[in-house]
Amino acid sequence: MPKPSADNAKTANARYIEADEAYFDGEFEKAESLYTQAIAADSTVALYFMKRSQTRLKLGNKADAATDALTAATLTEAKSSMLRQHFKALVTHGRLAAELSNYDEAAESLRKAYIINPSHEEVCELLAKVEPLTTPKPEPVIEEEEEEVEVRPARPSARHEWYQNDEYVILEMFIKRVQKDAATVEFSDQGVSLSVKMATGSDNNYEFEPLMHAIVPKESTYEIMSTKIEIRMKKANVGVKWDCLEQLEAQRLAKAAGKASLSSSRQGVSWDTIAANAEKETKLKPGEQSVNQLFQSIYKDADEETRRAMTKSYIESNGTALSTDWKTVSKGPVETTPPVDTYAKSY
């Protein structure tokens, strides 16, 4: 906010002195008018707004009094030499805003005042009354980012297969009766493209990119046969096994596997079913049956963390451990612990 000229500051101070005299004489309307003139000449002085706020409160104009107090708080906010005046303006605004049922505004000013003086009795009392009446802040909505999947034009229909050895990946395109000069193959470090001029005169283009791993273009070849086109791609990293031909295919498989794993992990454990199956398989004795009934009872009456602990420990240990302590179970996988003199066997 720009500083007023010397003349304006002088005029403002003169109006302020006259306004104070009117205020102490009980002439509140006149005082309000003079304070307003002082502010018009110099709107950078917080004291003018606080004095007009007090005057307007005397006149019953609570809303404008609250506005003036807030303006005074704003003008003194960044000035450490005016901390006491800033605190007073915050408390005044908080009190008036609360009386006007502007609870959010009141709470904001009172919180700032509390930081300055947390032991101030009026601030503590007002804040305790106002806080429960404020508008609840909505929980932030966390949007899950959808994984971007590369979208590319569909390849023309043609059956193809691939296999590999330590040095090469061999791609076979089963396209019959292709003339020797009607097909071209281009290799890059991460891809291969095949262009075939069909008997109808149209060109069919087949792109395989990006490949699962890098290849050596100069050492890659192709051969046109009567029933197929065989493309031999030299591996840049000899001996490395390719799980898929293309990276896009690997991404799709990984995503599908992730969803399947998540779906499986969300399935609940039916202790009734587990107990029933165990009873059929081992022909439980009455005492052992009561133990399973106990497990069912614990799970039924347990809180969410206990149920999670029981489910996780039972599944991960392959039925050899059961824990109700989520703090311990959540730290890592629960190992299979078979009975003494036995061992766990994977199938």
From TrEMBL:
Keywords: TPR repeat. Residues 155-246 form the CS domain. Gene3D superfamilies: 2.60.40.790, Tetratricopeptide repeat domain. Pfam families: CS (PF04969), SGS (PF05002). Residues 260-347 form the SGS domain. GO terms for cellular component: cytoplasm. Transmembrane segments: none annotated. GO terms for molecular function: protein-folding chaperone binding. TPR repeats lie at residues 87-120. PANTHER family: PROTEIN SGT1 HOMOLOG. Belongs to the SGT1 family. This is Cochaperone protein. It comes from Coemansia pectinata.
